[in-house]
């Protein structure tokens, strides 16, 4: 069985698993998937066992248990019996991993996508944010904490719309 | 990458991780006491968010502790008595008025952010990972509370008076944040923990810049090193009684 066809079967299985995970929505922002968010770090197939490594977005995120279970369910739905879901903190999750397509979907959904996170972590100033509706930078931060840990609240000075902005982490 | 720990390093690191987690748990509880009582809805939500983050950090620290001694983070948090807790007195003081809550949170957030920034360089890889993770969240707390302290200090006569009073009452307690636990020096030597004295120098510079220069508050009081982290005010026991009530009544509850 150690023929040329073997690796391509594995590749095929891997891409099937990734495709299934790409259908798992972020429980708090269902317009993007956990793959879009850059949360799925690695998928490994070892014989009958599938191991998925994911990285939590916020350490106190109440959706972590749901995400872990959703990953397991998605892989099991492909007929895999032995599923292991691991979490890792290395490297720490950053909003820079949210892919371009997902950023655009966030914007259309009314959530300002995160600005580049960069390395200067300790600063007393908030990062610049653009109104997802009219594109203006004339926005006011009204609350640093929103309905979920990952978002802040703004009002646009130009089109007057209130909106949520993804924190740049 | 992570250096193997000898026995005394392991014990000291367990003590330090527990102290770090205890500060986060107790402060999160005090913040949570504002739920439904904050001056405006946004702040109700903000403090609940901050409390949630701090509990997340506590869980990270207790997760590291668990790797060292096999302890269960939930049991550590919910089944110890006041005398076994090693949080600082600063975080267990009653929540007070809004100015007290914001000043305390600012003093603590700045300390936490600077400590985490230093700890992100730890030679003990699991701690460096946790610090890098938590630091990304902590900056939002610091931005939030720095703004509130400024707003209150430069606001009305009443808000200025309350903010000044809060700072005077809380400042002496900050020294305890910079006390070392037993065996900490050895961990600093090995590059496992940051030198807390160096963190303090940076913290004090930030305090002067924000509280005195920007917010025009008087920083007149000295911070005296208090008793060790095992000694508490009379406020901790009632806090734990409330916080641990459900866990103790239904010790085997798992999913709810």
TrEMBL record, chain B:
Signal peptide: none annotated. It comes from the Bacteria. GO terms for biological process: phenylacetate catabolic process. InterPro entries: Aromatic_CoA_ox/epox (IPR052703), Ferritin-like (IPR012347), Ferritin-like_SF (IPR009078), PaaA_PaaC (IPR007814), PaaC (IPR011882). Pfam families: PaaA_PaaC. GO terms for cellular component: cytosol. SUPFAM superfamilies: Ferritin-like. This is Phenylacetate-CoA oxygenase subunit PaaI. It comes from Deinococcus wulumuqiensis.
